[in-house]
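Posting here for the record, re: zinc ion.
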Amino acid sequence: MEKYNYPGLLARNTGSPGALNFLLSKYKECRQEHVQCGLRDLPNPFYPSRIIDVGEMDDENVCLRTTDTFDDEGPYFCLSHCWGEMQPYVLTKETEPMLRRGLPVGTLPKTFRDAIVVTRKSQVRYLWIDSLCIFQDDVDDWSTEASHMRDVYGQAACTIAATAAKNSDEGLFFERTPELLGPREIRATWTPTVAGLFWCDRETIWTDGVERAPLSSRAWVAQERHLSSRTMHFGATQLFWECHQCKASECYPTGLPNWALPFWSEDGSTLKSDIRHIRQRTANLPSNSFDTKDSPLVQSEAMHPTELYHSWGVFRISYSMCDMTKEEDKLVAIQGIAKGM
Ligand SMILES: [Zn+2]
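Prediction output follows.
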């Protein structure tokens, strides 16, 4: 097990300093060492039109800022969350003045409060939350901002995914039984050929913790996850890290073994890497490079257009199984992915 750096027994709460340090160190490692992930950290003129300023660690208030007159376009995080039955605190014409003046953190739903803690601990000052950064009583504003969602998530330094929370009151952190997590040592004596010491673990670690979690059934999340370069998944029993170069968990901090990842991803995450490869490969190629099978793009690597089409097909199937509260959201929620094609 040495190669996985299995950490031993985890803390009893997923919000413990040890658990959060796992994500903070992955974030730091990704930004400093991952070549693939670093390619997206290029200067880009896009910045969300509104953002939540989370201030410093012990500040009591957070406030809404409009960024058109902003001179500090520092890195920002996004929150990906289930709204649930109860509507979370939202930006409206009525709440706007209060949000601009500064709102006590304690008045916000638990998921928002926890996301503010994670953002501050990551030494990032700004956080984008859909319900607080898009007017919920203005259809035009919603249409405009929703059409920018691809850039909002695509340009975020990291996405905080409230993976296990069914609504905005459940938060990011959960109690757990650490004795039930991680590999078990088994001494086998069944046959002469199957004998010795084995390490055993569930092969559905990622599927159970991320793909089948409450957040993954939400249709918008299909787009949010695909567009984000880095995601911190706050699962019910452990925390997971996902970026272009690494999928890891607290039990497997240096990267989940291949057997612990689904051989085909239920959310079509292969599509994510395919789109990324295309972007990288088309960066210096003429716009018609993908037109024919003889094009330099198709010939440049092993990926064939049918593979990309297959990934897109897998994504559409999983997307169509997601919940969508408003029927009219369906095309808007998928257009960011379609644009990436
Ligand atoms: Zn990375």
